[in-house]
Design goal:
Number of helices: 7
Structural class: mainly alpha
Family: Belongs to the drug/metabolite transporter (DMT) superfamily. Small multidrug resistance (SMR) (TC 2.A.7.1) family.
Strand order of the largest sheet: 1-2
Helix content: over 70%
Strand content: under 5%
Order of helices and strands: HHHHEEHHH
Oligomer: single chain
Membrane topology: Multi-pass membrane protein
Mean pLDDT: 79
Shape: flat
Largest sheet: 2 strands, antiparallel
Main location: membrane
Radius of gyration: 26 Å
Protein name: Multidrug efflux SMR transporter
Keywords: Cell membrane, Membrane, Transmembrane, Transmembrane helix, Transport
Low-confidence stretches: 111-115, 137-141
Number of domains: 2
Amino acid sequence: MKKWLFLIAAIVLEVSGSLSLKAALEAPAFYLIVVAGYAGSFSALFMSLRKGMNLGVGYGIWSATGVALTTILSNLIFNEPITPVIALGIVLVMGGVLIVEIGSHSAQKKVVGSFELDPNLVTYEELARKKVRVKNPKKKMPKKKARKEESRNGKSRKEMEAVR
């Protein structure tokens, strides 16, 4: 939840900085808002990524929403035109971000046995460090494979299964 709040803050700060660029042409004091907006935006985006947001999703939403909001607000504040081509471009960018978001959710579903992994935990060492137990049903080793391994290392089938 915090990662989304940081992302929203990054978007608001980025849009504020972008709109202040236009305002700074008339009143140079707005350059302070530009600097603060962009610095705060990158800091909030960093925190969103640090809290677990995927880079492709976070950056995509940040940039696409920033473009859309900046275009709409510049129309309202500065009377800049929104042509049908601009509107189509915004819709296409937002659609692309939606597709990336959907794709990232399906990619996060990594299943090991009957245990669904957190996408941030990629190795068994990390699982052990976080004291997560993977509950996989013990499968018996096929007899043929057991005989081969028994002849290689001198352990019986039951001893090998106990080790696993």
